[in-house]
Amino acid sequence: MTEWVNGLVDQLGYGGILFLMFLETIFPPIPSEVIMPLAGVAAARGDLSLAGVIAAGTAGAMAGNTVWYYVARWLGLARFRPLVIRYGRIFTLTVEELDRVDAMFGRRGHWFVCIGRVTPNLRSLVSVPAGLFGMRLVPFLIFSTIGTACWTGALAAAGYVLRARYAGIETVLGPASLAVMLLLAGLYVVRLIRRL
């Protein structure tokens, strides 16, 4: 995967970074932890500017984030609520919990979106509750862009600074991403057992 990402960045430059980060947001198995540090390495070589790399990565990720936002907005609570009533055990969610989250999101949704953008494995999913609970588009775009720019900027800067040793980034972030994923899976299993 690293060679494929490197090839696209070398051939398409900023457009390749934008495209890859859009794909990463839509299809998470393509990790930003590989894309952005490699783009940072290209900037360190002088092929691209670091600011341009961060801007392209942020724009690509935000394009994907916006797609998920609109999909969830289209679904909406009116369509989602009957699914919770019918399949709540599988979702490990009750209508009462859904209403509580809806109320919480109305008060603190912007912080949830901003912080979620810098959390491994949650980054792509944050758009779903934002759209589902009807967060307004402008605050969603502002706080998503802030969080996304922080994430892409940190990864690109790490690649820029570490250059040939960029693989060290993945060795740190890889286990962190796995830990978050295992924690979320464990919480789901515990909730599922309690529901059943």
From TrEMBL:
<keyword id="KW-1133">Transmembrane helix</keyword>
<dbReference type="InterPro" id="IPR032816">
    <property type="entry name" value="VTT_dom"/>
</dbReference>
<dbReference type="InterPro" id="IPR051311">
    <property type="entry name" value="DedA_domain"/>
</dbReference>
<keyword id="KW-1003">Cell membrane</keyword>
<feature type="domain" description="VTT">
    <location>
        <begin position="30"/>
        <end position="160"/>
    </location>
</feature>
<dbReference type="Pfam" id="PF09335">
    <property type="entry name" value="VTT_dom"/>
</dbReference>
<keyword id="KW-0472">Membrane</keyword>
<feature type="transmembrane region" description="Helical">
    <location>
        <begin position="172"/>
        <end position="190"/>
    </location>
</feature>
<feature type="transmembrane region" description="Helical">
    <location>
        <begin position="137"/>
        <end position="160"/>
    </location>
</feature>
<protein>
    <submittedName>
        <fullName>DedA family protein</fullName>
    </submittedName>
</protein>
<feature type="transmembrane region" description="Helical">
    <location>
        <begin position="12"/>
        <end position="30"/>
    </location>
</feature>
<keyword id="KW-0812">Transmembrane</keyword>
<feature type="transmembrane region" description="Helical">
    <location>
        <begin position="50"/>
        <end position="71"/>
    </location>
</feature>
